[in-house]
Amino acid sequence: SNQYVLTAAHCYKDQNTTGFLSVRLGSTNRTHFTVDCHQNAENIQNLERSDTADKHDELEEQVICMEVDDVCIPVQGNNCADFMIDLALLKLKRPVNFTKRIQPICLPENCEELPSDVSIYAAGWGRAYDDYTFSDETTGGTTDETAEYSYDTESPTKEETNDNSASETESTLIFYDPVMLMARNIPIITNEECTRQLTRRVPKYTLCSAGGICYGDSGGPLMYQKEGRWYLAAINSALRGSCYHPVQPAIYVRVSHFVESFIEKIIKHHKGSQKGGTNDLCARDEDRQKCVREFFNSYNRSIDDEISE
């Protein structure tokens, strides 16, 4: 759709209105953003009225910031702490014109399982790390480039350190916040294996991986390519422990399990009427807040910490 965006419910901070929300489209650079969404939206509308080639090229390159008209989060069950249905469907205030930089992603068929012969990728601006190895023969000091982007450091455990050769070597992890959008292949594990590692039954709508994501990737997509098209497999939800040493599998919400029961129903409702009537589809605001807080308490993180990352 050209008017809906799917993300994680826990990214929708503890607010009662959508006034603080906006959706930025058309950029892979985290620092390339629009300061004023209202002004930017007006500029895009003016560009759309022009038929000149120059204006068309300018529109194609434009990063736009869209205001959000409505947010709907699925009605939750009694499993908010461990396996919250961590989805939020955002309706934009107006449709988006697709360009070479702004394109939709395909949704899978309802309850469709992941194809077994495809690679799964995650994308986001979440925390990343590099493993720097140095020896006693290396000149001391940290380069300016490393210092500029370093976020945190972590040393490998003894079990991860190989026997040193004649030249003593050490390594350390340098964490940083990337400017450009990052992507990587994600090692998916079965729900049976995930249940064994988590020591509690994993619901069918949950997808698990052996790490691969980090803080700040929340709400981002798991994607796969099939017959030349990209499909949305799941939405990134949560990870326990450090990104480099996850103590448990990362969990995601399978989009296919909510195509008919949630996504399509909300879109059809919006097309049929302007206000009201989604009480049986969208969680009440107080229920949403309660569920999100239970979710964060379970993962020993605060809402403010997650939003800031």
TrEMBL record:
Pfam families in the cross-refs: Trypsin
The question of whether Disulfide bond is a record keyword is answered with yes
An example Gene Ontology biological process: proteolysis
User: Segment Disordered: which positions?
Assistant: 134-167
List the InterPro entries hit by this protein, alphabetically: Peptidase_S1_PA (IPR009003), Peptidase_S1_PA_chymotrypsin (IPR043504), Ser/Thr_Proteases_Immune/Dev (IPR051487), Trypsin_dom (IPR001254), TRYPSIN_HIS (IPR018114), TRYPSIN_SER (IPR033116)
Residue intervals of the Peptidase S1 domain: 1-268
MF terms (GO), sorted A to Z: serine-type endopeptidase activity
Q: Please indicate which superkingdom the organism of origin belongs to.
A: Eukaryota
- Entry keywords, A to Z: Disulfide bond, Hydrolase, Protease, Serine protease
The UniProt similarity line reads:
Belongs to the peptidase S1 family. CLIP subfamily.
- What is the protein name given in its UniProt record? Putative serine protease with signal anchor
What is the scientific name of the source organism?
Ixodes ricinus
